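quick one before i forget lol
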Amino acid sequence: MLGVLFNGVPATGVSATATTVTGTTPPGAVGNATVTLVTAFGTATVPGGFRYL
């Protein structure tokens, strides 16, 4: 399982290599968003890890 969430909204088209995760960011309000990466090994969260312009 692999997922990336921006303020709880999933990114689409998410894929990964050993060093990179890519996907399309969902629409969001201007400002900072919490980014959460979900993998089979666990979850990592970065508060304010992305900024919508």
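fyi Strands lie at 2-6, 9-10, 12-16, 21-24, 31-39, 42-52.
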